[in-house]
Amino acid sequence: MGCASLLYPPSGSAGISRCGKACYSSSNPKVCIVGSGPAGFYTAQHILKARQNVEVDVYERLPVPFGLVRFGVAPDHPEVKNVINTFTQTAKHSRCSFYGNVNVGKDVSIDELQQAYHAVVLSYGAEGNRSMGVPGEDLAGVYSAKDFVGWYNGLPNCRELSPDLSCETAVILGQGNVALDVARILLSPVDILKKTDITQPALEALAESQVRRVLIVGRRGPMQIACTIKELREMVNLPTTRPEMVAADFEGVTEALKDLPRPRKRLTELMLKTALEKPGEKEQERRIKASRIWGFRFFRSPVEVLANHNRVAGIRLAVNKLEGEGEGAQAVLTGEVEDVTCGLVVSSIGYKSLPIDPSVPFDSRKAIVPNVMGRVQQTAGLYCSGWLKTGPTGVIATTMNNSFDTARSVMEDMDSGSLDVSAAKPGSKSISALLEKRGIKPVTFSDWEKIDNVEMSRGEACGKPREKVLTVEEMLQVVGH
């Protein structure tokens, strides 16, 4: 059976239901969560665990759950995706229901959700990209890391990206974990990638890739780099590659080591070893055989993406110096610039949240919903968790703690009476009627499990853990919508 075989299960009823769920009481407090990524599921998990009578409904724009765990975590990091097992337990809880394929803000408004639920928690993450703000960033061959990651991870709206990988050099702007993910995927041997859940179109494109050199550019220095040691170690040990560093970038770093906190110290020591120490015989042999190169360029900021016939041909970088010390040091322009020839630019300078509904306060400068401990300011009964609450910072464990804090705020407000749960609210019953009237057919969690089974069956036929369904249309076709 080929990789592209359609393995649809028999179509059946796909209406909203709580099949196999316990009976619901109209008097139970009802909480609605918008977004089914880590923030949404961790918020739901904490509320369900702490309260025996609260009902939680999770709404998601796409037909499939799990947000950045599905569409953001690198294909070669399957251990990070294990958290999906926990989220699945939450979704199958007797007092929890999932409604995919519902675009909150368009199919149903926040005001309508607030009328139906005692509390509404916004957990829809950061779907926007931070702009570089330089000439040429709209040229062909320039991508945001969010879109590039979405392309190889099967995010439906990134399916048509089709990046041109016929160039020799790629430049990644930013030095966080996402930047290193992109570098690693660009340089990894296809024999490694083909055993992951990377999409087939991305795998085929990477198999034909001519990219042999990746520069990972940051505006500050080695002691301010944003990646973690795990990600850096993976780059250092990546088969068929060798590192290429500029020794001058590390001047004074050895002397500063003793004052660094332990995680930062270990990270910096690994960079120093990679950049300055003569490798052992075995490592030297590996580097000599390497066909691909990666390296950090520090103290550089993008000034302009250079063009050739409306395509990227290079990037002009300003040379910076640091003022101040440690992680608070600021990059200051020196007036010097340098040009780097490249055919691919990926901007990994951060995600940002977007407003969802005119009725919800939004801080455009910080790109968050203004809140105190997850309580949305000046809007009773409305809360937020995850990156929408704090900005796009930290790892999944950071989001877990942040979401637990919001869940505690919801429950504290129930206990204090500032969130009135004494009057019954209809919850999903009224929202279901609204959606039906508007021609929207939600996807249930059991529907998602049909999609999941199709993907795993296709993957098995290709020797992969899964082969993702890449369009919303096909996802809905799988579940009989």
Automatic annotation (TrEMBL):
Catalytic activity: 2 reduced [adrenodoxin] + NADP(+) + H(+) = 2 oxidized [adrenodoxin] + NADPH
Keywords: Electron transport, FAD, Flavoprotein, Mitochondrion, NADP, Oxidoreductase, Transit peptide, Transport
EC nos: 1.18.1.6
Annotated metabolic or biological route of this protein: Steroid metabolism; cholesterol metabolism
Single annotated GO MF: oxidoreductase activity
This protein's GO CC annotations: mitochondrion
Phosphoprotein among keywords: no
GO terms of biological process kind: cholesterol metabolic process
Compartment(s) of residence: Mitochondrion
Signal sequence, renumbered to the chain: none
Family as reported in the entry's similarity comment: Belongs to the ferredoxin--NADP reductase type 1 family.
Name of the protein in question: NADPH:adrenodoxin oxidoreductase, mitochondrial
Organism this protein belongs to: Stegastes partitus (bicolor damselfish)
